[in-house]
Amino acid sequence: MKSAVETLNPTRVRLTVEVPFEELKDSLDAAYKKINQQVTVKGFRKGKIPARVIDQRFGRGAVLEEAVNDALPKFYTEAVNEGELNVLGQPEVDITELKDGELLAFTAEVDVRPEIEIPDYSGIEVTVDALEVSDEDVEKAVEQLRERFASTNPVERAAAEGDVVTIDLQAKVDGEVLEDGVAEGVSYTIGSGELLDGIDAAVTGLEAGGEATFTSELKGGSAEGKEAEVTVKVSAVAARELPELDDEFAQMASEFDTLDELKTDSRKRLENTKQYDQATQAQERVLDELLKLAEVPIPEKLLADEVQTRKHNLEHHQLGQMGLTLDKYLEIQGKTVEEFDAETSEQAIKGIKTQFILDEIVNKEKLNVNQEELTEHLMRRAASSGMSPDQFAQAVVEGGQVPMLVGEVARGKALAVVVEAAKVVDTNGEVVDLEDDEEAAEEAVEAAEGTTDAAAEAAEEKNEA
């Protein structure tokens, strides 16, 4: 076999391959054997039909077609290896010559990873938010905990903001009560904004037994998006009572004996959260600066496939789970289809550039992923998918997604290397020591590549199947 590589552009090549006919012998033998098992000729046992009879009855062309289809993947792979190509996606193959007994010639056009020169990233400098936790932040956290331990007591008075009311609802559109527009015994906290627009004003001031009518756009159900006349009847009013902020509350709501100890712990938790957020912010901003430094040609077909994948994941997973169509989502976002397409393309380009550059750094720095790192990453992804680690791992393996996870971890390690070489300061001008936060780096890479949910979605699809 002879092969030659022609570079069409920085991301696409054409392979020209010539195969002497004798190298097709194994594929020809396999073709005759396959046809033998599929056809019947009077006078011959099944599987024992001579090759000359198959040629006479079914045509030599059918045999050659079967043999070439069998042989092409092998010769294409040999040509790719011989040319030391890093191919992307499936090739477009064209058979240019097929002379029986003499020669098979074909061309294959395919996208390849572009050669990228890794930029000097040692001079990258970024600014992140300062790590500050105020007394107000602590008070807010404690107040949220206090809200969780609130109790409700029935009251005989008009309902006011913050009260919990028990209500019955009936929605009409064009004067007709909707089949799915009736609900009884619904518990609702006035001011929470969890039900229909206008309901807070309607129930405020009503006592048990009172009712009111208001109009509102329905947020779901058979008449979603339509204006409805809604009748609400209050059957009970209860006041929420918050526990006193004292040592007794601390003992009830936590493992601490005093309120001061609870506040100290809350401050520490907030500091840890802000420290992680600071690390993630640093990773993302360093990555943005890295992408600005490198010229990365983008393969057109790869970009088109990536854009299509992102649209599919958005429509069939994220929006599907929320009960939204793409049109409704764009309406809520206030975006046109053209704006959405441009934004998706921009995100896809960033994802591809991120992958190409960080993969080059992985190779340059000879970074490896060990079993412990992969397991930790898998556990985190399983938690975010809502599946058990065992279910997620099985689905990932069966779906062939393990290389994707390995790549995510490796690229996270590569970004961590770049961040370590960069200068990170906070808004106060203080140098930030991020230590070795590879988890934050992995999340930054996933966000840039748009793969945050990809493995989980693939796993879910496999699990559902």
Highlighted features:
alpha+beta, PPIase_FKBP_dom, 465 residues, five-stranded antiparallel sheet, EC 5.2.1.8, four-stranded antiparallel sheet, extended, 11 strands, 15 helices, single chain
Write the layout of secondary structure elements.
Layout: E1 2-9, E2 12-20, H1 25-38, H2 51-58, H3 60-82, E3 87-99, E4 103-112, E5 125-128, H4 135-148, E6 151-154, E7 164-173, E8 176-189, H5 199-203, E9 211-217, E10 227-241, H6 247-253, H7 259-293, H8 300-322, H9 326-333, H10 337-365, H11 371-385, H12 389-398, H13 402-421, E11 423-426, H14 438-449, H15 454-464
Parallel strand pairs: 5-11
Antiparallel strand pairs: 1-2, 2-4, 3-4, 6-10, 7-8, 7-10, 9-10
Helix pairs in contact: 1-3, 2-3, 4-7, 6-7, 7-13, 7-14, 8-10, 10-13, 10-14, 11-12, 11-15, 12-15, 13-14
In short:
With 465 residues, this protein is α+β, with helices and mostly antiparallel strands. Helix content is 50%, strand content 21%.
Account of the 3D structure:
The chain is of the alpha+beta class. Helix content is 50%, strand content 21%. It has 15 helices and eleven strands. The protein has helices at residues 25-38, 51-58, 60-82, 135-148, 199-203, 247-253, 259-293, 300-322, 326-333, 337-365, 371-385, 389-398, 402-421, 438-449, 454-464, and strands at 2-9, 12-20, 87-99, 103-112, 125-128, 151-154, 164-173, 176-189, 211-217, 227-241, 423-426. Strands 6, 7, 8, 9 and 10 form a five-stranded antiparallel β-sheet that branches. A hairpin with a 2-residue loop joins strand 1 and strand 2 (12-20). Helix 11 (371-385) crosses helix 12 and helix 13 (402-421) crosses helix 14.
